[in-house]
Amino acid sequence: MTRVLRYFLFFAAFWLSVSVALAQEAEQIRGLHKVKKKETIFGISRMYDITIEQLMKANPEMSAPDYELKKGAVLRIPFPTLQTEAPVAKPTNEEDVDDVRKRAIRLGVMLPLHNVNGDGKRMVEYYRGVLMACDSIKKLGISVDVHAWNAAEDGDINKILSDENAAKCDLIIGPLYSKQMDAISAFVEKHKIKLLIPFSINAPQLADNKYIYQVYQSRTFQDAATIEHFVKGFKNYHTVIIDCNDSTSQKGSFTSALRRQLDQENMECSITNLKSGESDFSKAFSRTKPNVVILNTGRSPELGIAFSKLNGLKVTNPDLLINMFGYTDWLMYTSAHLENYYKFNTYIPSVFYYNPLSASTKRLQQKFRWNFHTDMMNSLPRFAITGFDHAYFFLTGLHREGKNFLGEKSHPEYVQVPLQFERYGNGGLRCRTQLFVHYTPDNRVETIKF
Predict the structure, then answer these.
(1) How far is Cα 94 from Cα 297, in angstroms, rounded to an integer?
(2) Domains in the chain with CATH codes
(3) What InterPro entries does this protein's entry cite (predicted)?
(4) pTM of the predicted model, to two decimals?
């Protein structure tokens, strides 16, 4: 009788725990929905009286930029979150009345969109990436009204700005040329339009105009950021700078600034030459600390010679720990030097990383081929993917936060170009993100984002 009672209590406790678990799960998910043809994320959320954000939270795979809602997919449907309705405040100004979160976002593109020269061809591809982002976010229930103008180098930018549709934009992407900045800067400030400068140009207006967002920064700014992260990441390393005798190199300013910072931080550093004999070359390396090697050129031929000397050094000194620290240019040399990148634990600073093996990259390249019947240009970075990342980041941000969107929070699901902006003094915002592309000794590539 005691044994029977004990079994009964055991199974009762077991089924009670199962019931509690099911009840807890039921509190979060109320059912499943099988997607039908032509259904959208917006329509499904309306069907169940939930927000798009609640539906995406219950189905995390939806957060991927290249996610597509397909017929037959099964979605988890959460219960609506109970919220206390706040009193509706009366609109205080025109911006409150015209809430971008409740209508189609009006996007303007002012770039050289032509087939005359390389600038036009590259910007056409970038624009196609923007259109792909607009198509992608349709599945999130976000509508975009796009207007594009051919802002050629010899064109009249004021004529473009006189178009009545220009003043209605919430976001303008452009220009490509510095000489067009004065007119466009004054225009967006007057009409309170966000301006995204997608590529590196001289834009002193950034210092005063709070509506400007600049993606690419000056070499001085990037070098300073790289040195800051280098000093933090290689605090306990011995730095070896190799003079490569390249009279055309522009990397000397970086290595000179790095040496000054290493001196201030009391970090060990030695200098050797690419033409040094084996004995003198070897003396530059520490036997007690790991070494990090930097060249004062970004060229591929000198890099190949440096790897050859380092491989010879490892033969005679197999216990030496050697890491390489390079330049963004090196991302173009993977076909020639990939094996050595892995072998010497190489770090390459960059503001982008094109990963041809990632599922998102493959999908975007395939969609580009389907939509435009051609392949993306063989360039680094890929212009179409850059356009996709830029548009996706800003359009989803505007839909989420309205005109208060500043881009201060990064989007983890970028494909090639991470974005995160910070205020520049009392003026506009500039992108602050930087990557270290790391080729590990076990033949992996990882990106470290700062």
Answers:
(1) 54
(2) 22-78 (3.10.350.10), 97-215+357-369+385-406 (3.40.50.2300), 220-350 (3.40.50)
(3) LysM, LysM_dom_sf, Peripla_BP_I
(4) 0.79
